[in-house]
Each structure stands twice: as structure tokens, then as C-alpha cells.
Amino acid sequence: MANNRIELDNVFIEALPVLNKLNSAGFEAYFVGGSVRDALLNHEVNDVDIATSAFPNEVKKLFKKTIDVGIEHGTVLVLSGEHSYEITTFRTESTYQDFRRPDSVTFVRSLKEDLKRRDFTINALAMDGDGVIHDYFNGKEDLNSRLIKAVGIPDERFNEDALRMLRATRFAAQLDFEIDRHTTEAIKKHAALLSHIAIERIQIEFIKMLLGKSKNKGLLYFIKTNLYAYCPGLDKQGLEGLISIEKPFENEIQIWVSYLMCSTLMPTEVRGFLRSWKLSNKNIQDIETVYMTAHERLHKQISKETIYKVGKRLSLETENVLALLKYDSNRRLVEKFYNDLPIYSKKDLAISGKDLLKLTDQKAGIWLGDLLDRVEQAVLDQEIENDYSQILKWITANQLIPKQK
Ligand SMILES: Nc1ccn([C@@H]2O[C@H](COP(=O)(O)OP(=O)(O)OP(=O)(O)O)[C@@H](O)[C@H]2O)c(=O)n1
């Protein structure tokens, strides 16, 4: 058992009196969930959750100070010294009607039954007061292999609570873990269920994912599994923009501004987008202020010509080019395209307006400007080379010279 036991950290030691009291009254009690996972990973543990075989009324009888925080789900908050602990009765979750949290729970006396209904094997670990780990679903092995794997059948876990799919990508980002293949497949299959989940819950996981030290790992799963398509207004370009930002994000405002700068959203659509994520008015105001300032600064710094050409090359609106140019890494990307351009302006075309007038014996008019625009686009799109005879051939083949009156 020695290698199955860990040295208890202070946060756990402080909570031992609570565990001991439950044990002395004849109940089982364990530390569960994220605290055990994090302790095994040698990560800092800030607060601990406790699961017990005692029913809520039995917990309430044992402790002097308790608050019913989620009694219908079996959770009682116990105040002990300077600390408070959520104590939840072992439970199974039976009826799921709407892919959200359980609408009816059954209290049970078995730890294994309780762990069985949890989302991922790495979150289905329990630890007793002696530091002994109780691991029924190979959670420790998955921690070692750095793998997020649903407990039991992934389809069932995601049908119980669709938010878990997003939690998987959040944990991938926070822990730098991969998501198990079957679990990933199940997420792809059930991604649409995310639309049943309240935006407030989605927002919390989305932000946690982006604050994760390996945000790109999470984002790549988020895109690959198509989960993003079921979050309000998110587009791939904006998310890919976030991937290209190398520096880790420090706060929520930074994340939203960066997303807006990279997405296809127009400035006029920004407020509606932020509202659809139910952000607070204060946050919306802060995000808009930073976003608009960034825009203005960009307008001043970058020549109109560059923006125009890059936009043409990438088939992007001016606003989006500005967004891409915001970050150094993106600047490099754009410069790459810019440097790859076959021409940098109409003046670089191998054929001129004068040439065309001479060749066609036509009078100058709107048609000439339109024609040069089309030639420019064809050359930028690399449909034809910037070569006098190739351009002429292309113009003739496409009958782009107006008939003489
Ligand atoms: N949709 C959910 C949410 C939570 N849990 C279980 O409840 C525990 C506690 O959940 P929560 O506090 O939301 O997350 P943690 O895993 O503790 O992670 P963190 O504290 O880092 O958010 C999880 O470990 C997991 O066992 C679950 O099975 N399904």
C-alpha cells in the first residue's frame, strides 16, 4: 500500500478533524475530486471537497455550524475553525432529461458508486485521512499517461451533463493533457448537446481553458471536436487567432479583446456578441474600451496600402487585417503573405492602362479601371502570372474588352 499513499498537504491536514468526526460516527469520508487529482500531480491545492457515506441530515446532526448550500444534491457546507468545507453525500445521478445536471439524485453508502458517476477518471479519485488513494477507475494510471478519459462509457457521461465535454478541453489546457481517443470521438458525436447548457456555465469553462498554461492544446480540441460551433457567435478565425498568440493570457478582458481582434466580427457587432455571452456590463465596457483603443492605434500605425493589399491577398475585410496585425506572431504571418505577393500594386502589373487602350483601340472609361481591377485580382489569386502575353490571353479568353460601338 506504501506507493498508494501520499504525504498530506496542509490544506488536507487542516480538514482532518472534519473527516475524523465523520469516521468516529461510523461513516466513511474521503477527500475527492480536483484536490486529490492536484495533490497527486504535485500541484498547489487551495480547497478540498469531502464525500461521505453520511446522509445530509446525519452530517447536519454531527456538526454545530452548517449551511445548506445544495441540500437537494446532498451538499452541506460545514464550518470548522476558520475554514468551510463542502461535504457531499455519496450519490448516484439517475434521471437526466435535459443534458444538464441531474434532476434527481439518489444517496448511496458506497464510495465506488459515487465515483462511478463522475466525469473523468482523473477526477474520480478519493483519498482517506491516512493519505491512501482509492482508485477504482485507473485514474492514477491516466494521470501518469497524462490522459483525460471519461469514466465508463463516454456517451453516458456526456448525456448526463454536456458541459463535461467542454471541461475535457479545459483540463487539456490547464494540465497539458491529451484527451483519450474514445472520449474525443464521443465529444465529436455529442458536441451539439452543448447548446442545452447555460451560457454562464460555458463561459466559466471557456475562460478557464484560455487561461490554461497549454491553452492551444485545449483550443485545438475545442475546434477539432466542433464544440466551438455550439457557443454563441464563435468563429474559427477568431479561435485560430488566439492560437497564434504565444504569450499566455493573464485575464478575461485580455482574452475577449484578443478574440474580437482576430474574429470576423465587425466593430458594430461587438456589443451584441459580448451580451450573448452574458458578460457583466462592467466587463463589456472594459472590453469595448480596450478593443476600440487597439483599433485606433492600428489605424495610425499601419499604412492603408499595406492593409489593402494584405486584405486582397487574404480575402479579408480591412477590419480583420487590422485584427491580424495586432499581434507580433500574426504580424509575421501577414508579412509572409505580403512578401509573397506577386505584385504590390496595379502599377506592378506587366500590362498598363495605356497598353490596353492602344491594343484595343478603345476610349478610356470605367471599363478600363474595372478591367485592371480584375487583372490585378487574377494575378493576386495566382490564376495567371504577371506576364504581358499571359494577361492578354486571359483577357481575350474571358472576353473582357467591351465591344466597339
Ligand atoms: N460536470 C461535472 C462537474 C464536476 N464533476 C465532479 O465533481 C468534482 C468537482 O468539480 P469541480 O469543483 O467543478 O472541478 P474540479 O475537478 O474540482 O476542478 P477545479 O477545482 O480545478 O475546477 C470533479 O472533480 C468531478 O469529480 C463531474 O463529475 N461532472
TrEMBL record:
Gene3D superfamilies: 1.10.246.80, 1.20.58.560, Beta Polymerase, domain 2, cca-adding enzyme, domain 2. Homodimer. Belongs to the tRNA nucleotidyltransferase/poly(A) polymerase family. Bacterial CCA-adding enzyme type 3 subfamily. Keywords: ATP-binding, Magnesium, Metal-binding, Nucleotide-binding, Nucleotidyltransferase, RNA repair, RNA-binding, Transferase, tRNA processing. NCBIfam families: PRK13299.1 (NF009814). This is CCA-adding enzyme. Catalyzes the addition and repair of the essential 3'-terminal CCA sequence in tRNAs without using a nucleic acid template. Adds these three nucleotides in the order of C, C, and A to the tRNA nucleotide-73, using CTP and ATP as substrates and producing inorganic pyrophosphate. tRNA 3'-terminal CCA addition is required both for tRNA processing and repair. Also involved in tRNA surveillance by mediating tandem CCA addition to generate a CCACCA at the 3' terminus of unstable tRNAs. While stable tRNAs receive only 3'-terminal CCA, unstable tRNAs are marked with CCACCA and rapidly degraded. Residues 176-235 form the tRNA nucleotidyltransferase/poly(A) polymerase RNA and SrmB- binding domain. The keyword Secreted does not apply. SUPFAM superfamilies: Nucleotidyltransferase, Poly A polymerase C-terminal region-like. Its EC number is 2.7.7.72. Mg(2+) binds at D47, D49. GO terms for molecular function: CCA tRNA nucleotidyltransferase activity. Residues 249-395 form the CCA-adding enzyme C-terminal domain. Transmembrane segments: none annotated. Its cofactor is Mg(2+). InterPro entries: Bact_CCA-adding_enz_type3_sf, CCA-adding_enz_C, CCA-adding_enz_firmicutes, NT_sf, PolA_pol_head_dom, PolyA_RNA-bd.
